[in-house]
Amino acid sequence: MDTNKYFFAVDLGATSGRTIIGSICDGRFELEEVTRFPNNLIEQGGHYYWDIYALYFEIIKGLKEVAKRGLEITSIGIDTWGVDFVFIGDDGAILRNPRAYRDPITFSAMDDYLQHVISRREVYDVTGIQFMNFNSIFQLYAMKREGNTAFRNAQKILFVPDALSWMLTGNEVCEYTIASTSQLLDPRTKQLDERLLASIGLTRSKFGKMVNPGTVIGVLTDEVQQLTGLGPVPVIAVAGHDTGSAVAAVPAKDEKFAYLSSGTWSLMGIETKDAIISDLSYERNFTNEGGIEGTTRFLKNICGMWLYERCRLEWISRGERLEVRGESIPLSDVSHPELQGSAMQVEAFRSIINPDDKAFANPSSMIEAIQKYCRDTNQPVPETPAEICRCIFDSLALRYRQVFSWLQELSTLNAQLSTLHIIGGGSLNKYLNQFTANSTGATVLAGPQECTAIGNIMMQAKAARLVSDIWQMRSIIANSIDIVRYEPQDKAQWDAAYDKFLSIVNKK
Question: Model's pTM, two decimal places?
Fold first, then answer.
């Protein structure tokens, strides 16, 4: 007889989603993907929307598959991207599909709000959140300014994971980690700030009850039970923000660590008991987001493998070829390790960029943007895929060093931050992982790749009292995966490269 407890995780990103079954037995966990599906933006009338009903349908589809297999699941948890929300009317119905954070309505809203409503420094002092035009506060302000019908008639405003949990249970909550991405929450009180809400014409009553990760939201409605064939399965408020779930899965042994969630974008930070809000954190645009067990994720966004991914797509579309395995083959047939391996054969630090320069935000050609940056800073211009790839990897590792040094400066742990955990898809990139160890001087521990789903499932396991706290969760994770260790090398060479990086960044 199968005595394992099974947990159902819904992990939704801005381009795709998955449903996953996880189980814990004998101090180890196992994961199995049940379904995978696209998350498509809808463009209509000059605006971008998410299809909330399509996402709900995919969750139901995954639950049906679980029922079909005869698995008895202990609970369900949902994590998604941050900042976006759903309007609910006074009749209990969704007023319209939610706007997506990429909607152009926010382009001017942030500057207008900070100039005419509440100043930039005042907002940061309350929230400790970095400024991005698509933060919830600016989306809501833009909707108020345009006279948006859904905004005007909303009885409740639910962040996306909370809205999907409401669709499953009928209960309205405001989960702490996802709420923290809105730039409406005070991390000291851990509540939405009344003054900021009033500044955009809202009251606290428009949002659900604030709950922490691990809280039971409710059980599946009779309707959902009939649709899926399942019983009254509890839905748990996990760390609803996907990065919150990911950081919960860092397999650290103690608190003296930094993390790098590495993928298309990189998020480097530390886990703290209290928010860090100071002149220096404001100047360097660090953010304080909610974590599990009352912690704060103090971090900074870094432009990650976006640079590499964009260049690779351009090379493929141009029909570029690479000398691999003794022959010239199209880039479309070259694996990532082969392309990245070719970059290791060219000169190191020949050309260096600041990956977070605004020139790389969304250029029409990433290759040309990198070449122009090098030309403008009087450096050799990288031409081949290998040269450009090497430029990107060298530069990312040097930028990681800069942010890591800022974390050491801002953290109360100071120089005790000697370990950097790399999680997410980028944890498989052995070249960049080694470069990161070399550059930062820290021991790099790479893994797990599936950190968001693991963190989601571990919070459900905690709610089911299979684990007691975050450190037991992390111990189970460490026992269940292969962690690859990278020690720093070539210190003098990387020190000299960092001096070059700083001279280029400071001049640009």
Answer: 0.93
